[in-house]
Amino acid sequence: MCVVLDCNIISSVFNPSEKDHEEFKPVLHWITSGNGKMVFGGSKYKKELNRMKSYLKFIKELSKAGKCINVDDSAVDKIQNEIKNKHRDFNDYHIVAIIIVSKVRIICTKDKKAIPWFKNSDLYPSDVKKPKIYTSKRNRNLLNRRKYIGNVCL
After folding, report:
1. Hey, which bits of the chain come out as E strands?
2. What's the pLDDT tens digit per position in 55-73?
């Protein structure tokens, strides 16, 4: 089972001293101790991730443990550019592109402006189901549902 972590949520997931960590602690536990994996890819996402220096070492450790999946950067970049050119009001086009390439069904975010975009069926090709959104621990039931497994996690 896989999740795409919006970069706005990474500190809340990985840092126990963040005020909202309790809301995202199930995601951390699912990735570190369960069968969850973090999926990422594309130049925009990696650029955002590289600005989060304090988490890079931990993410590298997760990668070594097989808990991170890097999807094809060029495929993500191509799709994100297509979305960006069609929907200029939307700035998380790279997250949708990762979903399209990986077919992952869960996004973890706290970006309330982006959530309606993430749920917009028009952004996804017919063979990609729109994702479910994890915004707090009330959504923890999403984490172990087999129907939300992305192709890259099989």
Report:
1. 2-5, 37-40, 68-70, 106-108, 132-134
2. 999 999 999 999 999 999 9
Query: For residue 54, how many other CB atoms are within 10 A of its CB?
Result: 10
> Strand 2-5's sheet: what is its strand order?
68-70, 37-40, 2-5, 106-108, 132-134
Cα-based distances in Å from 51 to 7, 45, 46, 77, 109: 10, 10, 9, 19, 18
43, amino acid identity: S
pLDDT along the chain (154 residues), means of 10: 94 97 97 94 96 94 95 97 91 96 95 96 94 96 79 73
Q: What span, in angstroms and rounded, lies between the C-alpha atoms of 97 and 63?
A: 21
Q: Could you tell me the domains of the chain?
A: 2-153 (3.40.50)
Which backbone phi and psi does 40 adopt, to 5 degrees? -150, 170
The helix or strand, by DSSP H or E, that contains position 63, with its residue range, turns out to be helix 53-64
Q: Are the beta carbons of 78 and 106 closer than 8 angstroms?
A: no
Regarding pTM above 0.70, the answer is yes
- Look at strands 106-108 and 68-70 and give their pairing: unpaired
Supply 68's token pair.
Answer: 């991170």
